[in-house]
Structures are given as structure tokens and as C-alpha cells.
Write a structure and sequence with these properties.
Layout lengths: L1 H27 L6 E15 L2 E15 L15 E6 L5 E5 L10 E9 L5 E6 L5 E14 L2 E5 L11 H30 L1 E2 L5 E4 L4 H4 L7 E5 L2 E2 L3 H10 L5 E7 L2 E7 L2 E6 L5 E6 L2 E3 L1 E2 L4 H30 L10 H12 L3 H19 L7 H14 L5 H31 L1
Helix pairs in contact: 1-2, 1-6, 1-7, 2-5, 2-7, 2-8, 5-7, 6-9
EC number: 3.4.24.-
Subcellular location: Cell membrane; Membrane
Membrane topology: Single-pass membrane protein; Multi-pass membrane protein
Length: 427
């Protein structure tokens, strides 16, 4: 149960922050956002505020912000359909009443002859009171009304394609950007709570009933050398212990102003990974020393975020390289099932470990979404940059076909990765 709750919270936070980034910059640019959704599939919760429907959907496999655009507008008006319209003083339509479940007065009933809500924004109809034909244009704030619900019709000025290249670029880039900002916030909070691990070979904690406790290692002791090799960092000390292959090792220990030697024999720690395999490593039973600060954790948070971005970017590049080298395996990827199993294991280690894991996942989500795949933010950014460079948009039909191929590619990859996760963890 803990694993399920942890997965839902982690997934919800990552997707919400990512999609909020898109919506925040979209609304700043004046782009209408009819829906902000967490999850996919059937709605299980919805709330409308400021022309945006906030929904939580059943399947935890993503989320989206539906931005107004020409291709997203669905016209419910058909020729021969009878509707009522509410006009303003300029004879512009403010409300199109699709049924009789309303309280509007002074409306005009027409029979639709023609309509366009994508470009020209008008309705041509026959007035039922005198059988004359008239054309009415939409006001900037115009609504469909059905079942007493109002759904705003996006004006041309409130659509994604009407905005500048810079505004569209920021709107698309904002999702990954907010993931990086989330990672920074989480890393910074962690540094404020527990401090920053010191890379010097200084003992911070000593666990009971371990090789370190047996030789009386204490907090503040510095490991000077192992088997005659001078130790220059914590990671170097860890490396030397692993290279000792479990054999007794002689440590030179500095305690205050005194130095002493002690023989220590590491023990083997076995950890079961989410896929069921067991990983073994040599330990001596000590933890790092930590340093604290008032302002420093903010800077450490920036450093850790940048370092994580660099590491994950390098891993992604190497993974892409394996495709061309013919050594690619789906074991390199984790889908929702794999992420759930890893989250379950991480959650069992405590809230701080889970926070660190969430920060790394957030960086990973940001990096992956910037890949130049048409269905992802990175692919859409490429289309916007093309328009900015060549001063004209890519042929619409070509762009739609490329995006369709991208969506199919991502769906196929998701299915294959999910199946691979199921085989790994459950079969």
C-alpha cells in the first residue's frame, strides 16, 4: 500500500508541475487552456475555473494541457440545426444556445446554414421569425451553452498559433523547465534538512555491530590510508574497500591529533533490486559527515540539479548511441510499471530517500521531454524554431504527418517498455 501511495504522489507531483509550467506560460502569453488534466482516460474528478477545466483522470500514465488552436476546435454546429443565439449591441454573438436548458432572454432562433469556428468565426442562418438569411460574427468572448454549462469558444487571438515564436517556445519549454525547478527545490530542501555530504574521508556516523564499530571508529575520525594507499576522498575510500574484495585491510586513522592503525574486514551487504536480482557490495558500517549552512544549501541545490542534468543527459546520449551500435536493450528503459516497482523500493527507505529519487525523476522527465521526437515537447519546439529561422511555418500537412508518426512511435515504445517491465517484475 505504501508503494502505491508513494507512486501516486510522486507521479502526481511530477506531472502536475510539468503541465503547470506549460499552462502558466501559455496563460501569460494569452493562450486559452480549455483543460488541465492529470492522468489519461475517463474523468474521476473535474473542476472549472476561469475557462479551464481541471480534471483528474483514471490512468496514471501522463497528463496534458489542452491549449486552444485551430486544430483543436470542434464545431458542434451542423447545417439545418436549430439554435438560439444571444447578441450584443454590435450584433455579435456572445452565446450560442445548443439546447433549451438555459435562462437567457431576448435571444434569436435561427436555422444554421453555414458556420466556421476555426478561422472566419461566424454563423450564417435563417431567422425563423421572417425566414431571412443573416451572417453573425463571434464576439471576442463567446460561449457555447449546453446543459447549463458554458464552454468558451477560443478567439483567434487566444490560440497557440497566433502567438509569437518566442511566446510559443517559452510555453513548450516551460514544462521541462519546471521539472528542473522542482528538482532544485527538492534538492535544496534536502540540503537544509540533512546538510550536504562531505566528500572528504571523514566519518559522520558509525553503525552498531559493524566492522567499523569493532575497531572503535568514531564520528570525526579521518581515514588517512588503506593498505598503504593514501585516501583523498570519500568516493576513493569506497573504491579502495571494494577493490579489497572482502580481505582484511589496514586503515590509518586520524583521531584529533592522534593517529593509529587498525585492521578491518568488510562485510557483504546484499540488496534485492526491484527486478528480483540481488546486488552485493562490501561495507564497513560508516556514513558520511555532513556540512550545514544558511544560504549555502541554495547554491548546493543548483549544483546538484546541474550535476544531475549533466549525468542524465550523458546517459541518454549513451543510450541513443547503443541504438546505432546495435547493443540497445529495452532493459535500459523503465515504463510506468518499472517506475512503480522502483518507487516502492525507494519509499521503504524513508521520505528523504524518496524526495531525492523524485528530484532525479523530475530531471529525467525534463530531459526526456526535450528529445527531438515530434510527440514530445522537444519535437514541437523544433517546429517553432523552424518557423523562427525560416520566417514561415512548416507545411501544415507535413507537420501533422510528422506528429502522427511521432505519436505512434512513442505509443509503440511505451507498449514495448511496459511489456518488458511486466516480464521483468511479474513473470
Amino acid at each position: 500500500m505504501t508503494g502505491i501511495l508513494a507512486f501516486i504522489v510522486v507521479f502526481g507531483v511530477l506531472v502536475t508541475v510539468h503541465e503547470f509550467g506549460h499552462m502558466f506560460f501559455a496563460k501569460r502569453a494569452g493562450i486559452m487552456c480549455p483543460e488541465f488534466a492529470i492522468g489519461m482516460g475517463p474523468k474521476i474528478f473535474s473542476y472549472k475555473y476561469n475557462d479551464t477545466q481541471y480534471t483528474v483522470r483514471l490512468l496514471p500514465i501522463g497528463g496534458y494541457v489542452r491549449m486552444a488552436s485551430k486544430d483543436m476546435e470542434v464545431n458542434p454546429l451542423n447545417a439545418g440545426m436549430r439554435i438560439n443565439i444571444k447578441l450584443n449591441q454590435n450584433d455579435e454573438i456572445t452565446h450560442i444556445l445548443l439546447d433549451d436548458k438555459h435562462n437567457f432572454q431576448h435571444v434569436e432562433e435561427i436555422e444554421v446554414v453555414d458556420s466556421d469556428i476555426s478561422e472566419r468565426m461566424y454563423v450564417t442562418g435563417l431567422k425563423l421569425n421572417d425566414n431571412s438569411e443573416a451572417t453573425y460574427y463571434f464576439s471576442d468572448e463567446c460561449y457555447f451553452v449546453e446543459n447549463s454549462e458554458l464552454e468558451r469558444i477560443a478567439p483567434l487571438s487566444g490560440r497557440f498559433e497566433s502567438k509569437s515564436v518566442w511566446q510559443r517556445f517559452l510555453t513548450l519549454f516551460a514544462g521541462p523547465l519546471f521539472n528542473f525547478l522542482l528538482a532544485f527545490v527538492l534538492f535544496t530542501i534536502l540540503f537544509y534538512i540533512q546538510g550536504k555530504p562531505v566528500d572528504e574521508p571523514i566519518v559522520g556516523t558509525v553503525m552498531e555491530d559493524t566492522p567499523a564499530a569493532e575497531i572503535n571508529l568514531e564520528e570525526g575520525d579521518r581515514i588517512r590510508s588503506i593498505d598503504g594507499t593514501e585516501v583523498d576522498s570519500w568516493s576513493h575510500m569506497t573504491q579502495l574497500i571494494q577493490e579489497g574484495e572482502g580481505n582484511p585491510q589496514e586503515l590509518m586513522i586520524e583521531s584529533g591529533e592522534e593517529s593509529r592503525t587498525a585492521t578491518l574486514e568488510p562485510t557483504v551487504e546484499s540488496t534485492e533490486l526491484p527486478d528480483g536480482t540481488v546486488q552485493e557490495r562490501l561495507i564497513i558500517g560508516v556514513g558520511r559527515d555532513f556540512e550545514d549552512g544558511v544560504i549555502a544549501p541554495v547554491w548546493w541545490g543548483i549544483e546538484e540539479t546541474v550535476s544531475s542534468m549533466s549525468l542524465i543527459f550523458e546517459l541518454v546520449v549513451n543510450m541513443i548511441g547503443t541504438i546505432f551500435a546495435g547493443t540497445f536493450s529495452f532493459d535500459m528503459l523503465n515504463g510506468p510499471v518499472g517506475i512503480y516497482k522502483v518507487t516502492e523500493t525507494v519509499a521503504s527507505q524513508g521520505i528523504l530517500v524518496l524526495m531525492n529519487f523524485t528530484a532525479l525523476l523530475s530531471v529525467n522527465l525534463g530531459i526526456m521531454n526535450l528529445l527531438p521526437i515530434p510527440a514530445l515537447d522537444g519535437g514541437r519546439i523544433l517546429f517553432v524554431l523552424y518557423e523562427g529561422i525560416f520566417r514561415r511555418p512548416l507545411n501544415r500537412k507535413v507537420e501533422l504527418n510528422i506528429q502522427l508518426i511521432g505519436v505512434l512511435f512513442v505509443l509503440v515504445i511505451m507498449v514495448l517498455v511496459t511489456w518488458n517491465d511486466i516480464k521483468t517484475f511479474f513473470l
